[in-house]
Design brief:
The chain is mainly alpha-helical and 77 residues long. The chain has two helices and no strands. The chain has one domain.
Length: 77
């Protein structure tokens, strides 16, 4: 049996929904909550990867500008 959200199940039972329907609805919502939690974890990894990529690109750009600054004397004010 899947994890069940107790508050939703209790609310459905209080609304006189048949027990089988209330159980299935609560389990389905709990399954969606689990899926959303996995998506949020994956998204945090993607955010970290994007941040690292942007940092490395900025470091590369800074290194190229520094190299050009040393190689091209006419570019200095």
């Amino acid at each position: 049996m899947a994890l069940r959200m107790g508050a939703l199940y209790d609310a459905l039972m209080a609304a006189h929904v048949p027990e089988e329907q209330a159980r299935k609805a609560a389990e389905e919502v709990a399954d969606y909550n689990e899926r959303i939690g996995r998506i949020e974890r994956d998204l945090s990894v993607v955010k970290w990867m994007v941040g690292t990529t942007i940092t490395l690109q900025l470091m590369t750009l800074g290194g190229m500008i520094g190299l050009l600054w040393r190689l091209v004397p006419a570019a200095r004010p």
